[in-house]
């Protein structure tokens, strides 16, 4: 069962990585939220790859959490490392969800 989850998560990760790579419009090796949304809204292949794995709103919320160095953009390595933990580690998944809720509160209540 765990091996199946790992393989399924790796497949989903590859789909989103392809979407992120395609969203890197300036070929900088990183993608910003704006680049991700522009690609998501303008490219049906990017939209299909993202929607098959994660809700785009959730992806954008997790973007800031996954941004390890806080520079406002994600490298594939930052995304890969955090996505695997988010999907496979139940404790870290709960932590990510709690952080996501705090981000939502911060942006919508303050």
In short:
This protein is mainly α and 110 residues long.
Mean pLDDT: 80
**How many angstroms separate the termini?**
43 Å
Report the major sheet.
2 strands, antiparallel
From the helix content, strand content and strand pairing, which structural class follows?
mainly alpha
What general form does the structure show? globular
Query: What portion of the residues fall into strands of 2 or more residues?
Result: 5-15%
Q: What order do the SSEs take from the amino end to the carboxyl end, as H and E?
A: HEHHHEHH
- Helix count, DSSP H or I runs of 4 or more residues: 6
Labels describing this entry:
mainly alpha, 110 residues, two-stranded antiparallel sheet
